[in-house]
Fold:
Amino acid sequence: MIAIILARKNSQRLKKKHHLKIKGENLVKKTINFAKKLKFIKKIVLSTDDDFFLKGRFGSDLIKIRRPKHLSRSKSSSISAIKHIFKKLGEEKLSFQNILLLQPTSPFREVNLLNKGKKLFKKFNYLFSVVSVSKTKNDLKRYFRI
Structure:
C-alpha cells in the first residue's frame, strides 16, 4: 500500500496553509512523518506544485511528483491529481495494490485509528473503501451527509 499526500500550493481561503506549523512542523512534513509510522505503508508519494516541498529534504523513501499547473487550480479535483500520480508511477514501473490518501489539512490523526481502518479494509478483501469521519460541534456552511 502507498500513502498519497496532495499539497496544492495556492489555497483560496488560507494562503500558504500547508506551510502552517503545529509543534514546529509544517502540515506537509507532519503528514509525511505520520505516514512513516504506519508499518503497512511501503511508499509515500507527495504530489505538489510547491517548490518549497519539492526541494525539501524529507528522507529518501519519499517520492515527489511535480503536479502540473492544470491540476493545481482551485477547481482541480483530487481524483485528477491521483490519476496523474498513477500515470507517473506507472512510467517508473512502480506498482501497488491500494492507496491511503492523507490530507495535510487533517493533521490530528492517530496511528491506532489508521491500523483499525487497515484491518477493516483487509477484512473485506480490499474491495471497499474505508473513510474516517468525526462529529463536529461547529455550525459549518459546508457539510456532508453519509
